[in-house]
């Protein structure tokens, strides 16, 4: 395919697929079966996190530095030489962010970015992509505030793609892909705004042919 665009991303997410880059930079699209989601209504912070939240160790911001969050998430981890977040992916998601469709939740100590996460918001769905931390618990606090925001803005679905130990700690479960697609089609039609006090965005899944 040609270079990945923000429009490609929107079309993919609205149809239940998402891209990842291989070590050579090649892009592949995925639609896992089963699919991992985090139920928004049943999430509860771990007991060990509650004292951290009460101490207000981090200042939380939305979309203060989206690209910086992505670049931190793209750094290799656990001795691995590469990640699935290529430069092409970073550019496409930053373009999507400029369109008001991709958002980050960021944790700061003073003016220093120390943790956060990013994802894509379409209708009443937030598609979580990746998170990072430089200070202990910073990404967990950012995730907690993500959930609080999704609840406040009445989002219906939080997609986390694949199940793993990291998302399990936040209450992730697996559901069949067909069930996920049913939830997706319903939720993306709901007009929601990720950032408070901004216009909500509505998407009709039957009008995506031009993307």
Notes on the structure:
- With 211 residues, the protein is of the alpha+beta class.
- Helix content is 31%, strand content 24%.
- The strands form 2 sheets. Strands 4-5-6-7-8-3-9 form a 7-stranded mixed sheet, with helices on both faces. It has a two-stranded antiparallel sheet with strand order 1-2.
- Strand 5 and strand 6 (112-122) form a beta hairpin.
- Helix 1 (6-14) crosses helix 4 (87-98).
- The protein starts with 5 loop residues before the first helix and ends in a 24-residue tail after the last helix.
- Residues 199-211 have low confidence and may be disordered.
- End-to-end separation: 14 Å
Largest sheet: 7 strands, mixed
* Biggest sheet strand line-up: 4-5-6-7-8-3-9
Figure out the total of helices.
7
Structural class, by secondary structure, is alpha+beta
What's the Cα radius of gyration?
A: 16 Å
Round the mean pLDDT to the nearest integer and report it. 90
For this structure, the quaternary state is: single chain
The succession of helices and strands, N to C, reads HEEEHEHHEEEHEHEH
Helix content range: 25-40%
The percent range for strand residues is 15-25%
Rough shape?
Answer: globular
Outline the low-pLDDT stretches: 199-211
Count of strand segments: 9
List the helices and strands and how they pair.
Blueprint lengths: L5 H9 L3 E4 L5 E4 L4 E3 L12 H6 L3 E4 L3 H9 L12 H12 L3 E8 L2 E11 L2 E9 L4 H15 L4 E5 L3 H4 L4 E3 L1 H11 L24
Parallel strand pairs: 7-8
Antiparallel strand pairs: 1-2, 3-8, 3-9, 4-5, 5-6, 6-7
């Amino acid at each position: 395919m040609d270079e990945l665009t923000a429009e490609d991303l929107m079309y993919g997410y609205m149809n239940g697929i998402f891209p990842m880059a291989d070590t050579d930079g090649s892009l592949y699209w995925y639609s896992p079966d089963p699919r991992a989601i985090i139920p928004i209504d049943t999430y509860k912070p771990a007991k060990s996190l509650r004292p951290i939240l009460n101490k207000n160790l981090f200042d939380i911001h939305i979309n203060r530095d989206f690209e910086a969050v992505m670049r931190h998430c793209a750094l290799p981890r656990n001795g691995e030489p590469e990640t699935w977040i290529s430069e092409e992916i970073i550019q496409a998601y930053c373009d999507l962010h400029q369109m008001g469709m991709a958002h980050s939740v960021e944790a700061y100590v003073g003016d220093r970015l120390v943790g956060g996460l990013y994802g894509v918001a379409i209708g009443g769905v937030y598609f979580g992509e990746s998170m990072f931390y430089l200070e202990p618990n910073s990404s967990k606090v950012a995730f907690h505030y993500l959930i609080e925001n999704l609840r406040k803005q009445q989002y219906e679905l939080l997609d986390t793609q694949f199940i793993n130990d990291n998302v399990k700690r936040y209450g992730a479960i697996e559901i069949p892909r067909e069930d996920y697609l049913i939830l997706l089609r319903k939720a993306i039609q709901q007009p929601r705004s990720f950032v408070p006090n901004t216009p909500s965005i509505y998407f009709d899944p039957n009008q995506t042919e031009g993307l």
